[in-house]
Task: inverse folding
């Protein structure tokens, strides 16, 4: 709710821990931010799914999203992609399911 009326929305390495998708969060706002930046986001070519991440001191629910559906959900809200980048070396290996592993995390700058 704090993003309502903001000029910029920034999510860095956090959306995979949030139950609602970015599009759901933004759709609930009366006055959506003009600029949205997301960084360190695990996007994959497979269907969306939730796994468990071991961070050493705890286990956390961890959501992996389909890349094209993520982009389409933002376009549906009137956002366009300004820039996309990758985080070399940052990956998420899903044991026994290599087809669901994330080879590199993504960053995206959207504007409307």
Result:
């Amino acid at each position: 709710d704090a993003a309502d009326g903001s000029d910029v929305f920034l999510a860095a390495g956090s959306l995979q821990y949030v139950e609602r998708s970015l599009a759901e969060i933004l759709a609930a706002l009366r006055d959506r931010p003009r600029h949205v930046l997301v960084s360190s986001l695990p996007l994959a070519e497979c269907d969306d799914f939730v796994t468990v991440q071991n961070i050493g001191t705890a286990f956390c629910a961890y959501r992996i999203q389909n890349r094209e559906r993520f982009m389409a959900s933002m376009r549906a809200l009137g956002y366009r992609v300004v820039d996309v980048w990758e985080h070399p070396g940052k990956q998420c290996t899903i044991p026994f399911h290599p087809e669901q592993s994330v080879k590199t995390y993504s960053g995206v700058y959207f504007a409307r």
Q: What stands out?
A: The two ends are 19 Å apart (CA to CA). The chain has a mean pLDDT of 94.
